[in-house]
Design a protein that fits this description.
Blueprint (H helix, E strand, L loop, with lengths): L4 E3 L2 E4 L4 E6 L7 E7 L6 E6 L5 E3 L7 E6 L4 E6 L8 E8 L13 E2 L3 E6 L1
Parallel strand pairs: 2-11
Antiparallel strand pairs: 1-3, 3-8, 4-5, 4-9, 5-6, 7-8, 9-10, 9-11
Length: about 120
Amino acid sequence: QVPLVESGGGSVQAGGSLRLSCEVSGYAQYTMGWLRRAPGKQLEGVAAIGSDGSTEYRDSVLGRFTISKDSTKNILYLQMDSLQPEDTAIYYCAAGPASRPSLLPYDYTDWGRGTQVTVSS
């Protein structure tokens, strides 16, 4: 099974945008998610997408972030717009066997190593 690998992190000013990518070959039947760990805080789910295309978002990112998957290229994306300083965190791509998209970290079994997102005011 190929490891999950995130990319696209970086530093932006408040109001800016970033797009994270994750190689997800071999996870067609899994729920995929983006989760993050902010400095001094516990891991939290950000967005998730089921194998049927259904999605779930944390309330604080709803309307600003969009999760999607390109099945032909086997790439998972997280488009992040209107970024705010509180979005600063390490973002992880993850896969799990949940029947529906989940924001709960313990529903995920396979994890990437993370990519840093820093938003300055």
